[in-house]
Aldo/keto reductase (Saccharopolyspora rosea), 311 residues
Amino acid sequence: MARLGTTDLDIYPICLGGNVFGWTADRDDSFAVLDAYTAAGGNFIDTADGYSAFAAGNSGGESETMLGEWLRARGNRDSVVLATKVGMWDRRPGLSAANIRAAADDSLRRLGTDHIDLYYAHQDDDSVPLEETLGAFDELVRAGKVRHIAASNYTAPRLAEALEISRREGLARYVALQPHYNLVERAGFEGELAGLCAREELAVLPYFALAKGFLTGKYRPGDDTSESPRAEGARAYLDERGVKVLAALDEIATLRGVPVASVALAWLLGQPTVAAPIASARTTDQLTALLTAAELRLSEDELRRLTEASA
């Protein structure tokens, strides 16, 4: 376990993504994955109010509802660090004060808990003053409904502005950032945004840490047999650079005797400010690679090999 940035939250180094719960993982599979993750020492689970509205037949809230059922069934709420989000779901869009208050109450009800450990602005909303958004989050923190707040999908200038407003007005501040970041998606985070997170001591929790499954090694040139819902997005990385990344991952995974996905996640854990990559698993077999990554520390040479391959 390690501290999440400047907070008092102790977290497992791999955050379990809840986007598959109620989508590609049914109730039995979701419970099995959650049980296996916590049995191995995992305690950090990420979801959002809108998960899994993108699945056929769903409307949103399914992941939170399923997590709530599991937490009640296991009676383990106090041992789990629970993160969810507001602002992207079309039924509760945006970051107005009214929407944040209503969305938080809805999430608490679905999750069956009286508090959220880490509550994200799922994406920036430039139609609402940052002062209003941060003021609403601050109210939730003061009321005890939320312990800490975080940002997802923010640019460096907007994140810096939000942090300055919190400092100036004495409001709760973002303690973490959830960016789109992995071995084949580096440009959007590295540089200005990464530097800001380092200076402000923000924990970084990358989503799509396995690039929609591409970094598991499942997708290869000439192999188009998978019908996974994410297959098309994963195959988009099968260019010359992607093939180089797979080759480097294969080399290190073979030498270490670990799954390819474990190496990809370990590369993220080797980056400055990254506290815990977020990755999901539909089955307990898929979970194995995530748990292995939590114990895997790459050497400087291995990190450099992967960084150069993905340049």
Observations:
- The first strand starts at residue 2 and ends at 3.
- Strands lie at 2-3, 10-11, 15-17, 44-46, 81-86, 116-121, 146-152, 174-178, 203-204, 278-279.
- Residues 2-214+260-297 form a domain with the TIM Barrel fold (CATH 3.20.20.100).
- The chain has a mean pLDDT of 95.
